[in-house]
Specification:
The complex is a heterotrimer. By secondary structure, chain B is an all-alpha fold. Helices cover about 75% and strands about 0% of the residues of chain B. The chains are: A alpha/beta, B mainly alpha, C mainly alpha. At the A-B interface, helix 1, strand 3, helix 3, helix 4 and helix 6 of A face helix 2, helix 5 and helix 13 of B.
């Protein structure tokens, strides 16, 4: 009898492993399949990004496969192989090596974290496999850049000169403050925005770093309240942004300081997380202005999730790659890379074209919008 | 040691030597990481397995080593061959300075304190932006300069470099644990007060074990830095320390070769379940609990049981 | 001056959560000799379950709190009965099992409900002296729970058994105290407290798979600082850590907010190896 609990426990655990293992194994590949890899964080603190990107990719995948890709008269379907990077460079590199060497993919999507993008970009050159990143905001991902690595979204260094003049026009600030996440993304944002603000004579008076996973921002906000900058930029994931806005409202920061969020703070999810009251009157830089309502509805119906820019970029990225494969009429990664360079694609949000300029290579030109939250509505200011 | 184990070691080294000849670039990469982790778990075993104190900050020394070596070569123009030993000595001395007060803390207190030390080092790497370039990562690290006409920039060369130093380090550890020092360490693990009473300077030996294990982790970090050539603090976060503990435990603490097997098995297992992104760590934790249930002594315990020992 | 008081007040609110989780871990640690990392997982799972209970089943928030506590103590009971109990006396195996459980559940939550953050609907509106009622409620409920636990340990029969067992477990066994029962009770108590903490903070903050990491780590620091077996020590250290952290982040460097705990820990342990309130 004493052995019984142990036996049961073992059966439960082994059973769980078998079920989990089986449910994840991919089905035998069809011969007429084009394999594309996707590396993104699916676990850990950055899991939110991968989850959203994967949603967009799934939607695009359905469309592409319904139509099929015709190469030299033969129909092909796309299969996505996705691996978890946990936002850790060594894992992302393992993913890319496996995708390139074992899975023999023709193109790669991802990663989402700049640290991972920087680590995998040189590998794509080494293996001669083109990759399109879904996010990654740090300048150095495409500057000086790599022959086989493409980015659609603007880097922080590109966004600041596009955004700041408009921001200055709206607020006419003398002083600015930052609350930003302590990672590659947060620091890229702060560095480029601070430099650009200084050009317009705006002084940065307070800079606060917070670690990923922080939930109580009152410390930082109280400091902001004391210093009273005219505008405060808050940079982080949506959940962090929602908490910042809510807590800022609670302790009355918004009375003297206008809140301006990074890209994530223009997402619909901010509304559902923080509530219309808390975000009323705040601004944010947005990677999408007014997306087709039919697409937003599709996302909602399929995933029960609000629109997010990673969904849009994931969706566009797969379409861009599929188009490149079709126009290359080949499964040779180098030819796909050449076709990607000639990409001219009208995406959900903006026109996708990869160019080399100002030291950047294979970089999309994309103009961000500015969004204001007015009585529970996401309104595009410019 | 039994003849069988000697044969097993010889065979595995031969297999390791021939892997790059037929395996893909990806497999070589994974095996390099597995070997680096084997160095880490083996050195970890010296402290936790042989001497006793449970530590959760091994990745911190790994990271310190990696950054030290990278910065030495980047800032002073030193070659890898100079930076490598300096890194080892520096991390050894640093650990001695930290370990001397810290090892006075006993039991779980020590374990939890090391946990926080590890996190503190991570925060330091993240926030000292002038020094480490913080969250943007350190780039442009050179591969080891070529000696004897061997160019170390290719992955295969890195593989043999790591294998060479891995065998050296494990050999050193093996000699160390068999020596008088090793026996003193084990006596501290078995009963610290008794060891003290028979004239063993326990605090000296504990700090020694702590510093040696840290110094070797620093060497592993140096090897990593010049092989991977891109450093980011997340590669040395507390998750990695946990992973080292899990690997050592799955293999079997206090056996030196157990943790090495553990590093290989866990790494292999994680690669096996790579196609299941959301489930990898669930499966790993279930495996850990299963190992604990069956044989808290780990895989080595299972092997011994099969062979009818103990 | 005004902002200083605000900082201290917020530090106390954060500190009361640390203290709540720490109290459960402390009791478990002093009886079962295991730093129970799985309390971090219980914190998260309870928060999720009560979130679904409030948003889907529309039960009132107070009931959700009770539900969270029940879920927490049930999980802790199962962990103890089927896992920790096997390795009693082998503290290292228990510790590793605790870490494995923490790891397991954080990832299970991630796989089941995705990493997307969820937010509790506000159940109280308005504020007082710059603190919202919900924040004040956290402190009040935490205080009530502290008093209840204190009374439970000091006045009840099983509480006396727990105190006896924490002093000397073998002697307690001789005195006819069933160590299995004491263990079960202690783990259920700890689980209930962690569960309560999870449900209490989620309306202020957000619910996501890794939400338990930081409170768990801070609670462990509090337990070590406070020494074993003293309810008051845990309370003072929890609140103290909360305040020191906010002041450090507010007036020194915010980037190290979560590093101050370690610095305090090292300073205290160097001079007082048994913690601030530890008995010998």
């Amino acid at each position: 009898m004493k052995k019984l609990p142990k036996l049961l426990l073992v059966i439960v655990l082994v059973g769980a492993m078998v079920v989990l293992g089986l449910s994840s194994s991919t089905l035998a590949a069809d011969p007429k399949v084009i394999k594309i890899g996707y590396t993104a964080p699916f676990t850990g603190a950055g899991a939110e990004y991968g989850t959203n990107g994967w949603r967009g990719i799934q939607l695009a995948l359905e469309e592409v496969n319904k139509k099929g890709i015709t190469i030299k008269g033969e129909p092909y379907k796309i299969e996505i192989i996705r691996y978890d990077s946990i936002c850790t460079p060594t894992e992302a590199v393992a993913n890319v090596r496996k995708l390139a060497m074992e899975d023999k993919v023709v193109a790669i999507l991802g990663d989402h974290c700049s640290s991972c993008c920087m680590a995998i970009a040189p590998l794509c050159d080494e293996f001669k496999i083109p990759a399109v990143t879904i996010e990654c905001a740090a300048d150095s991902v495409t500057k000086p850049g790599h022959e086989f690595y493409f980015r659609m979204r603007p880097s922080m260094g590109l966004m600041a000169p596009l955004g700041i003049p408009r921001i200055v026009k709206i607020f006419n600030p003398k002083t600015a403050g930052f609350i930003n996440i302590n990672d590659d993304y947060g620091h890229s944002f702060r560095d480029s925005f601070k430099a650009e603000l200084a050009k317009h004579g705006v002084e940065t008076v307070v800079e606060e770093d917070f670690e990923r996973g922080t939930t109580d921002f009152t410390v930082y906000l109280t400091k902001i309240k004391r210093v009273k900058p005219d505008v405060a930029f808050y940079v982080g994931a949506i959940s962090e942004g929602a908490l910042i806005v809510k807590q800022a409202r609670e302790i009355g920061v918004t009375d003297q300081t206008a809140l301006f969020g990074a890209e994530e703070m223009a997402e619909m999810e901010l509304l559902s997380l923080a509530g219309a009251e808390a975000i009323e009157g705040t601004y944010a830089l947005a990677l999408w202005g007014s997306v087709d309502p039919a697409f937003a509805k599709r996302v909602m119906d399929r995933f029960n999730a609000p629109m997010h820019y990673a969904i849009i970029f994931g969706y566009d990225a797969l379409h861009v790659v599929a188009k490149a494969i079709e126009s290359a009429q080949s499964l040779d990664p180098v030819k796909i890379k050449d076709a990607l360079k000639k990409t001219d694609y009208q995406g959900l949000e903006g026109h996708v074209k990869f160019e080399s300029f100002e030291g950047y290579k294979n970089q999309g030109r994309f103009v961000p919008s500015i969004v204001k939250w007015v009585s529970g509505q996401r309104t595009v200011v410019e | 040691m039994f003849v069988a184990s000697r044969i097993a070691i010889a065979v595995s080294i031969i297999i390791l030597i021939f892997i790059p000849q037929f395996a893909s670039n990806y497999v070589i990469y994974v095996v390099i990481l597995a070997m680096l982790f084997a160095i880490l778990t083996a050195s970890y075993d010296l402290l936790t397995g042989y001497t006793g104190p449970l530590s959760f900050c091994h990745a911190a020394f790994y990271g310190l080593g990696a950054y030290t070596s990278a910065l030495l070569t980047l800032r002073t123009g030193m070659s890898f061959w100079q930076a490598f030993p300096i890194t080892g000595i520096w991390v050894f001395l640093f650990a001695a300075a930290v370990g001397y007060p810290a090892l006075k803390i006993r039991g779980h207190y020590f374990a939890v304190t090391t946990f926080f030390f590890g996190h503190f080092v991570y925060l330091f790497l993240l926030n000292s932006r002038k020094l480490t370039n913080g969250p943007l990562g350190l780039r442009g690290i050179r591969p080891p300069d070529s000696i004897l006409g061997i160019d170390f920039s290719s992955i295969t060369a890195s593989y043999y470099l790591v294998l060479f130093f891995g065998v050296l380090i494990v050999g050193f550890l093996h000699l160390l644990v068999k020596s008088r020092i090793g026996r003193s360490l084990v006596s501290i693990r078995e009963n610290e007060d008794l060891a003290e009473s028979i004239g063993i300077n326990t605090s000296f030996y504990k700090v020694l074990a702590f510093s040696i294990s840290a110094g070797l982790a620093g060497l592993a970090g140096s090897l990593f830095a010049h092989f991977f050539r891109f450093l980011h603090p997340t590669d040395f976060a507390w998750m990695i320390s946990e992973m080292i503990v899990i690997m050592a435990l799955v293999g079997g603490l206090g056996t030196l070769f157990g943790p090495i097997i553990g590093a290989g098995v866990v790494k292999f297992f994680l690669e096996l379940v790579r196609p299941a992104p959301e489930l990898r760590f669930i499966l790993l934790s279930i495996m850990l609990i299963l190992v604990l249930l069956f044989e808290p002594k780990g895989l080595v315990g299972i092997i011994r049981r099969i062979r009818g020992e103990k | 001056m005004d902002t200083l008081l605000l900082q201290i007040g917020n530090g106390l609110i954060i500190g009361s959560i640390y203290a709540l989780v720490a109290l459960g871990i402390n009791v478990i640690w002093s009886i079962a000799d295991v730093p129970d990392f799985s309390q971090g997982a219980i914190f998260v799972v309870s928060a999720y379950i009560s979130y679904f209970a409030v948003t889907l089943a529309k039960i009132p928030y107070v009931l959700a709190l009770v539900l969270g506590m029940c879920v927490g103590s049930f999980m802790a009971f199962i962990f103890e009965r089927f896992l920790y109990r096997r390795w009693r006396g082998a503290g290292r195996v228990q510790l590793l099992c605790a870490i494995a459980l923490f790891f397991l559940w954080t990832n299970v939550v991630n796989a089941l409900w995705t990493a997307k953050a969820k937010m509790f609907p506000a159940y109280l509106k308005g504020s007082m002296f710059g603190f919202s009622y919900m924040r004040i409620a956290v402190v009040v409920v935490a205080a009530i729970l502290f008093v209840l636990v204190y009374l439970f340990i000091m006045k009840t029969k099983i509480g006396k058994a727990i105190r006896a067992a924490s002093q000397e477990s073998e002697a307690a066994q001789v005195l006819g105290i069933n160590i299995n029962t004491v263990n079960s009770v202690v783990f259920m108590l700890g689980g209930a407290l962690s569960g309560a903490a999870g449900v209490l903070v989620s309306p202020l903050y957000a619910i996501f798979p890794t939400m338990g990491d930081l409170p768990l780590l801070k609670a462990l620091v509090v337990v070590i600082l406070g020494g074993f077996g003293t309810v008051g020590g845990v309370l003072i250290c929890g609140l103290g850590l909360g305040v020191l952290e906010t002041l450090g982040a507010g007036y020194l460097s915010s980037a190290y907010q979560h590093g101050y705990a370690f610095v305090i820990l090292i300073i205290v342990l160097t001079f007082l190896p048994k913690g601030l309130f530890g008995k010998v």
